[in-house]
Here is the input.
Amino acid sequence: MRMSQSTYTILLGGELQVTDRLRDAISDSRFIAADGGMRHAAALGVVPELWVGDFDSTPVDLAGAFPAVPRQPYPAAKASTDGEIAVSEAIARGAKRLILAGALAGERSDHAIQHLLYAVSLAEQGYDMLLTSGREEAVPLVAGAIELDLPPDSLFSVPGFSELRGLTIENARYPLADFHLPFGSSRTISNVAKGKVRFSLESGRAIVLARPYDLSGV
Here is the structure.
């Protein structure tokens, strides 16, 4: 398959399960690993074109497993996370679509939250974003419209990072039309997809968190 020149998958240090949806998402991608995120490369059967980070979370055996991958080391005391550095490198290489693999789970909740916030910021700049753990997926929702192809009866939520105005959700068990969601409201938590779900928003910042393998909404 021809590799996309504008889609980059960033391998991050959180948990990652190899699923069919994950494989489909990254099928024509290029790869950059951020520090310990390199451990996912073998499971995915890929060789990143660059490995960045301070390497403080990289075990010795992993460090020797990819000798041919160019490394770009940074000091531990730096102003950006390894993941943000990896994204910057991808953008410098022409990335338009960014998949943050290993972004949603793991021991560091602070990193997972930062990945979500950073993804929303990048979406506002026009980048096509997907965050995934393999079992769970997240897509930023900013002013405009998106459509997610989700299995019928799978769960999704739309937590807002601000007040949301003009929120519309179509083809879901609990649809909304031109809805005003106050900041901090739980109204948009635990909805159920009927298939392709359409979202639109007039103003605000949110994230669509989907669980495509969770059919407990049946």
Summary: The mean pLDDT is 92. The first strand starts at residue 7 and ends at 11. The radius of gyration is 18 Å. The CA atoms of residues 22 and 137 lie 9 Å apart.
